[in-house]
């Protein structure tokens, strides 16, 4: 049941990302709502949920962006793994929304770099017909970071709301925002 709820949330976020935000661009850039939802889910400390969200969100973004399938998916899955290792192995204190902004900046840069590297390799070997321009990505990354930071907390709150609802459906104690 919880994976159906996460899948529906990803569909809604991708729909908002592709339906609304092309009309509300910030210096020609739109935010990455599935990425911010993944960051919020990773900060909830539930690895299975974050890996499922990374897989689904990455596949949706790969399909909708038209680049090589696996570019965003691999970046999202690797990001979820890195955040899992950092949160569970290195961080011994309780995580909160205060770390959200640093993680969001890292996630934006990391996933864009992974998508560019994988798509460039696929284009080089002839597996993809679309090439991402590295200079355009460098020029737009700052504005995408700013846009993502503006929307980071609302999506963290949304991820927390979904997690609390799922825990309540399972009859468990819910977490604090």
Structure overview:
There is one protein chain. With 177 residues, the chain is an all-alpha fold. Helix content is 72%, strand content 0%. The protein has one domain. The chain contains six helices and no strands. Helix 2 packs parallel to helix 4, helix 4 runs antiparallel to helix 5 and helix 5 crosses helix 6. It is globular. The relative contact order is 0.16.
Mean pLDDT: 87
Q: Helix share of residues?
A: over 70%
Determine Rg (CA atoms, Å).
16 Å
Largest sheet: none
- Extract low-pLDDT stretches: none
Structural class: mainly alpha
User: How many β-strand stretches?
Assistant: 0
Determine the number of helices (DSSP H or I, runs of at least 4 residues): 6
Taken together, the total number of domains comes to: 1
What characteristic shape results from the CA principal axes? globular
Oligomer description: single chain
Order of helices and strands: HHHHHH
How far apart, in Å, are the first and last alpha carbons? 22 Å
Question: What descriptive keywords fit this protein?
Answer:
single chain, 177 residues, mainly alpha, 6 helices, globular
Helices and strands in order, then pairings?
Blueprint: H1 2-19, H2 33-42, H3 47-65, H4 71-90, H5 100-124, H6 134-169
Summary, kept brief:
With 177 residues, the chain is mainly alpha-helical. It has helices at residues 2-19, 33-42, 47-65, 71-90, 100-124, 134-169.
């Amino acid at each position: 049941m919880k994976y159906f709820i996460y899948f529906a949330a990803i569909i809604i976020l991708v729909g908002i990302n592709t339906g609304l935000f092309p009309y509300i661009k910030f210096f020609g850039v739109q935010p990455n709502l599935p990425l911010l939802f993944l960051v919020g889910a990773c900060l909830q400390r539930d690895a299975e949920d974050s890996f499922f969200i990374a897989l689904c969100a990455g596949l949706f973004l790969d399909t909708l962006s038209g680049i090589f399938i696996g570019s965003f998916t691999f970046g999202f899955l690797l990001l979820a793994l890195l955040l899992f290792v950092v949160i569970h192995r290195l961080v011994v204190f309780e995580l909160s929304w205060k770390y959200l902004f640093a993680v969001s900046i890292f996630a934006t840069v990391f996933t864009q770099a992974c998508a560019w590297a994988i798509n460039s390799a696929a284009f080089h070997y002839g597996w993809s017909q679309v090439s991402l321009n590295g200079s355009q990505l460098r020029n737009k990354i700052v504005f995408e970071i700013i846009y993502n930071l503006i929307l980071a907390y609302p999506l963290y709150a949304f991820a927390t709301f979904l997690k609390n609802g799922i825990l309540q459906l399972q009859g468990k104690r819910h977490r604090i925002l």
